[in-house]
Design goal:
alpha/beta; seven-stranded mixed β-sheet; globular
Length: 147
Amino acid sequence: MTYTKKLNSPEETESFAIDLAERLEPGDLLTLEGDLGAGKTTFTKGLAKGLGIQRMVNSPTFTILKQYSGRLELNHFDVYRLENSDEDIGFDEFFNSEAVSVVEWARFIEEYLPKERLEITINRQSEQGRKMTLNPIGRRYENLAGS
């Protein structure tokens, strides 16, 4: 089952992510898709706040991975630069850890992703408005997305 949510501002995107973060568990994996400027990093900033992370969160575009500590550890990947690459930076180790992982542009590393995950797509509807689609894969993520 797919779930959709209409968000009318960056603040609503962040608030939705904060609420979701409060229900995350060790090892959860969220993938983010959406055009440049759709709100993937805004969503991740909200997720980090919800996990009690105090550090400033920004996109790891040039480093591919940034890690943060809070109630749960957060691995924030931006794998845009890995398009058309077969480079494996040890994804299994990260995805099988106790940290929550968020992967922006996850389609570029599809072959490395665990089967079960929460796929999130953010589409721009207007200058401020976004439509968020949640596609849970696996019972854990079905419960997470449906609550």
